[in-house]
Amino acid sequence: MVTVKNIYKAREQISDVINKTPILSSSQLSSICGNRMFFKAEHLQKTGAFKIRGATNKVKQAVKDGATFVTAASSGNHGQAVAYIANELGVPATIVVPEDVNPSKEAAIKAYNGEIERCGLTSAERLPRAEALAAENNGGVIPPYDDPLIIAGQGTVGLEILDQLDGVDVVVVPIGGGGLISGILTAIKEIKPSIKVIGVEPEKANDTYQSIQQGKITSIKEAATIADGLRTSQPGSLTFPIVQKYVDEIVLISEAEIRKALFFILQRMKQLIEPSSAVTVAAAMFDKLNVRDKNVVCVLSGGNVDLKQLGEMNPEK
Q1: How many CB atoms sit inside 10 A of residue 187's CB?
Q2: Where does the sequence pass through the membrane (predicted)?
Q3: How far apart are CA 112 and CA 109, in angstroms?
Q4: Mean pLDDT score, 201-220
Q5: Residue 207 — pLDDT band, cuts 50, 70, 90?
Q6: What does the pLDDT read at residue 204?
């Protein structure tokens, strides 16, 4: 299992690449939520999301171990992050994307000199192709979340929160495959276990919530949520035990609540975040946290929104 020692090592490994993102605040949201609200702004991170942390940790190690090529199966933030750090290190990268990849995401990967290969429509189809490419090219596959180096890299978000803000009571984290929350949980619970960590999932992508309820990894049939970064069908085999051990609570958010939170942040704080980030804000806005008069930090995990689709997310439509 990943430990806080691994996360400190990851911080050293990635410090020359990543940004130490700011913590924002909002007096208006604080008033609405009945807490002092803070926001860890990973949407302002390089490549627009926290994913660069874990990707940098993993790709750097792969190159140290002799990899001359890297690949990932991803249509979104992870693929962009892998392409970015591979380009920085001078290593070619191919990102295996679905046949119906979003054009803006494809363009972002190409902007970092990543090669694109289309394969199928599901991750189950893309991952074997990525593994085959790695075998053919003396390369390494960079997993999106279920890997110790990825988890440790994402855990550096937790270290920064503790460094940047005194008196944190609650940290609210979105859950997809679990890489981000398992890293943050490890950092915070091993350093300051009194801090409450609450995970948030969309109602339509509640695989980790279901898994906690069942006491074992449980799959869901479909994750049809607007929060595309959280559309996993089950938590990872490495991430889930960490979440199971440490998480204080997991709450669920409706699609309407996600839309309202996203546009509130855009209109009032002038911050463009993606729906996957908005789930943490929604949890606070719609009283899912069950805390009052506390210092609450919501992790804004990313800001890579397709502007053509932004109007479709408007809660007033």
Answers
A1: 30
A2: none
A3: 5
A4: 94
A5: very high
A6: 92
The residue behind tokens 């997991």 is 250
SS3 171: strand
- Domain residue spans in the chain? 4-50+147-313, 51-141
CATH 3.90.230.10 fits 51-141, yes or no: no
182: its two tokens: 């398992």
128 vs 51, 151, 209, CA distance in Å?
22, 22, 28
Q: Name the fold adopted by 4-50+147-313.
A: Rossmann fold (3.40.50)
Cα–Cα nearest to 267, from 231, 313, 223: 313
**How sure is the predictor about 225, in pLDDT bands with cuts at 50, 70 and 90?**
confident
Cα torsion at 3, 196, 234, 43 (round to 10°)? Answer: -90
Burial pattern 13-23, b for ≥16 Cβ within 10 A else e, equals: bbeebbeebee
Contact 247, 279 (CB under 8 A): no
